[in-house]
Write a structure and sequence with these properties.
There is one protein chain. The chain has helices at residues 8-35, 81-84, 113-126, 131-143, 159-171, 176-179, 187-195, 222-240, 258-265, 296-308, 316-324, 367-373, 388-397; strands spanning 36-38, 43-45, 148-154, 180-184, 244-248, 252-254, 271-275, 285-292, 334-336, 342-345, 359-362. With 403 residues, it is of the alpha/beta class. The strands form three sheets. It has a six-stranded mixed beta sheet, sandwiched between helices. Strands 6-11-10 form a three-stranded mixed beta sheet. A hairpin with a 4-residue loop joins strand 1 and strand 2 (43-45). Helix 3 (113-126) packs across helix 8 (222-240), helix 8 (222-240) runs antiparallel to helix 10 and helix 10 (296-308) packs across helix 11. The radius of gyration is 28 Å and the shape is globular.
């Protein structure tokens, strides 16, 4: 039965629709023919030509995926404290401005003479003469083509926590000497590590800068500040030597080979870390476990963080996150690790660790007590790394832990 359309407007619309249908059908059949080729034995899939997009002068095809790529607007070199303006009341920093206050100087330098002096002396001692070249040779000779190195710094007072972590590695059949770089900050901890067969960096630099060997259980004491600065300096040297780096606290227990997980997860990011559920400058990453992939973006960020450490007050986590959240480094690709797998306990959290936990991190002052409460304290005579002298010393000199 024929349909007659008398309205010219409706007739035009009908012709337009029919034309589109015919065109689309032809396009689909042509596309189908270009994708599938039926043979007597099997159906083969052929590559479909990609739509060609005009390339801009700044961003070439897949350029953003390269490790050496610095996106438009990203700093081309590390920023100094004046460029970072950590105390700028004008809001150039994308975080709480009431954390570091220096009304007369946006760089914080005029209000940080003590920390600037301490950090300058530490850097001078740690990188005196050819010490950097010696350490780079040590990295290459020891780690070779390994992709990732874990760096931990420790004084004698913290050794009981480090050894507890080593006990967890032993249960997993892992050897810290394969992938870990221990940086002792005093000759006593160096001697103990030698005694139990743990490779470590030389303490030659401590002849010109001494960090107190006692640990009180408080993570924000002056000695702890400088221990974290040593980690920062060492991490940047490892990045320059071509390695991915894991910043790792001593108050941690592994339940699985965390390094494998970090390397697999971190392949798409510059920085991966534990979540810090704070409102303020300590958000979003907990610096107890940070994976740094060796990219140009990571290097510029980390060297800028090192420059900012001169005006750091106490918290390395504050420092790290304030630089990370600054407007300069918004394009750093970062990822938070799942809390259920990477568990933190500070004594105020009622939720127990899950059965699928990969890692346990005791934050706060009551570290040993927290670990014992959750059955994560492994430093005992059954552990191959147990040392009675370290155990006795920590019991006498570390408050809030032996509960």
């Amino acid at each position: 039965m024929a349909i007659t359309i008398n309205n010219p407007l409706l007739l035009a619309m009908a012709l337009l629709v029919s034309s589109l249908v015919i065109f689309q059908a032809g396009y689909l059949f042509r596309g189908f023919d270009s994708v599938l080729e039926v043979t007597s034995s099997k159906t083969e899939f052929k590559e479909v030509p990609h739509v060609q997009i005009e390339k801009s002068n700044e961003i070439k095809e897949a350029e953003f995926l390269r490790d050496d790529y610095l996106p438009p607007g990203f700093p081309k070199k590390p920023l100094d404290v004046k460029e970072l303006a950590m105390c700028d009341p004008g809001g150039r920093i994308n975080t709480l401005r009431d954390v570091w206050v220096c009304p007369s100087d946006p760089s914080c330098l005029k209000c940080s003479s003590l920390t600037v002096n301490m950090f300058t002396r530490l850097v001078k001692a740690f990188r005196f003469g050819d010490m950097v070249a010696q350490r780079v040779n040590y990295f290459k000779n020891r780690f070779g083509n390994r992709k990732t190195v874990i760096v931990i710094s420790v004084n004698y007072g913290q050794l009981f926590l480090l050894l507890n972590w080593l006990c967890s590695l032993s249960l997993l059949g892992l050897d810290i000497n394969d992938f870990g770089l221990i940086v002792p900050t005093d000759v006593e901890s160096s001697a103990l590590l030698d005694r139990i067969g743990i490779k470590h960096l030389s303490t030659d630099w401590t002849r010109n800068y001494q960090i107190e060997k006692r640990y009180t259980g408080i993570a924000t004491g002056i000695q702890h500040v400088q221990i974290n600065n040593v980690v920062l300096l060492t991490a940047n040297e490892l990045l320059d030597a071509g390695y991915n780096v894991v910043l790792h606290d001593v108050d941690i227990v592994w339940k699985v080979n965390v390094l494998e997980y970090l390397e697999q997860t971190g392949v798409y990011f510059d920085i991966v870390g534990m979540f810090a559920p704070f409102v303020g400058a300590k958000y979003p990453l907990n610096t107890g476990l940070i994976y740094l992939r060796n990219t140009a973006r990571t290097k510029v960020f980390m060297k800028s963080t090192e420059n900012a450490a001169a005006v750091k007050f106490i918290s390395d986590q504050e420092l790290f996150n304030m630089v990370l959240r600054s407007l300069h480094f918004e394009q750093v690709r970062r990822q938070v690790l799942p809390e259920s797998r990477f568990y933190k306990y500070n004594g105020r959290r009622s939720q127990p660790p899950s059965n699928d936990m990969y890692l346990y991190h005791a934050v706060g002052a009551h570290k040993m007590g927290s670990m014992k409460f959750h059955h994560q304290w492994l430093f005992n005579i059954s552990c191959p790394y147990y040392d009675k002298d370290v155990d006795d010393y920590s019991a006498k000199n570390t408050r809030n832990n032996h509960s």
